[in-house]
Amino acid sequence: MKRKDGEPVPPFIPGQYIALTIDIPNTTHKHTRNYSLSDSNEKDYLRISIKKESGIPEGIVSNYLHDNISEGDILELRMPSGEFTLKETEKPIVLISGGIGITPLISMFKKASKNKSQKITFIQCVLNSDTHAFSKEIHELLNENITTKTVYSLPLTGDILGKDYDYKGYLTSEIIEDLNINSDSEFYFCGPTPFMANTLSILENLNVKSEHINYEFFGPVEELSLSIV
Hints:
The chain has 229 residues and is of the alpha/beta class. It has two domains: 17-77, no CATH class; 93-227, Rossmann fold. 22% of the residues lie in helices and 19% in strands. It is built from six helices and nine strands.
């Protein structure tokens, strides 16, 4: 997205989001949704990446955007905001995404990857190859200090372990330990509530200090603890 008046897009910190408000015909009010900015903050545009949700009302906005918005259409956005942002640090960085939670993390990854001396580990947890988003973009930025691993919970028949994905099932402490990740790293994670609850529990059990645990969750923090199974 670019500004209608031709002025530069507003600056943002990787990890932030915009609020999009849209008037959908035959509904009683305008609809507002938050979408993470999913590209580098050095571009002349803002990018959001929207999963087409099923069901109503949950998917009313995403379906309308997918089916009705085209190049040249005008959208109403608010300024980038949010405190789930990439810190300025030389510590190793660990990015852990679940499903569409990758959107703020891909922006962080693109920024962090410019520091060729910083160690980065990117763990992407998805269902299978059909939902494995941004794999090409991530691959294009790899260097000797970047490690990427993929966890498929429901691999397809044609998905090959060791080629298409690295671990089957869900994120576990054993995966973190297998990757020799330093507990003093800065950890960032985002995804559905059960995924986040599980990730938070894993990091706490591995004695990662709270100041090194960074996540975005739209709801009371207590819900994450209550969601741990």
